[in-house]
Amino acid sequence: MSQPIPNTLPIGGTPQPIHPGALHAHWKKMARKKGFELIARVTDRYHLALRCKCCGELSSTKLFVLMNARPLCPHCLARRRQSRARRAHLRFLRRDPSDTRYGVYKAPCGHELRRQFGFVERIARGEVSHRCETCQHAREQEEAIARGWQLIGPDPEGNHNYRLYRHKEGCGIVTRIARVNMKTGRFDCPQCGECWSAEPSAIYLMRITLAPDKHVVKLGFSRDPESRLLHQLHRVPDLPRQLIKSVPIRSGRQAQRLEKKLHAWLATRFPEGRVPPEEFAHLLKVKSEIYRPELEQPISQKLDRLMRKERRAASRSRTKHRARQVRLRKVRR
Length: 333
Description:
Residues 309-333 are annotated as: Disordered. The protein is 36% helix and 26% strand. It has helices at 25-33, 63-68, 74-87, 117-124, 133-146, 179-184, 225-232, 252-269, 296-332, and strands at residues 8-11, 14-17, 36-41, 47-52, 58-62, 91-95, 102-106, 112-116, 150-154, 162-166, 174-178, 201-211, 214-222, 241-249, 290-291. The strands form five sheets. It has a four-stranded antiparallel β-sheet, with helices on both faces. Helix 3 packs across helix 4.
């Protein structure tokens, strides 16, 4: 056990030299008024040692602060910050020495976060949520890799909604892309990409639950039905929805043409089958293409026939391509 150093007062684990001088009555009165007990003068004639009436711990404060402002007990303050951090599912580690408004916290993932104390208080109240930059960067990198791209870094133009990417599995171009578009796949390479009408697409059938005892189906086309389902249709994040069927189509233009024919057939065959927008507009970001659940089976049967036709067409296309290649080789000889 360390021995106390003569003529010092341990404050925050550090011995502070006691400064000789009178402790004036009006100083003591002001300290009591502000929740402290005046113990001694320390370090120099401008600093005082105060004992907090709440926690009983000693702290050092300037005489000017005692007389003209509201001294804060650093021990009580640290406990409050630790309590707020726990409510925010963080662990308070230390203050940021470069900025008194910030603290350093440990997130549940194990990474350290630098956050404003006021922001952590808002997290504790449930107004906002924290996000680990390290984990976020890893997620964004995974999203880019899944699309054949590589995350380079932040947007050079300073837009927080954009990132800088390289087309790793394509032409190698480096370009700005909105992060939400990289996540959902709603973008194209500005150098080697094709327009939506020429790219492969799909006609899909989805089942969406609007209420516990009410579900509807949606018929549409998209080059990425999974992205359409997960990121683009819903207004409510936890809305139950399921991709029932997806039929690959050779091109976006062909998918659009076939989808229009299907909607026309449904309107003629089942005129009462379309759901009015007022029944789903508060839950979905679409205004049409929503049908009663009774139409799920006939639509599914139509899509099965369409899938067989598309497979036959694709097979004929491959056969014609091979025959054309053979003819070209003969001509070259």
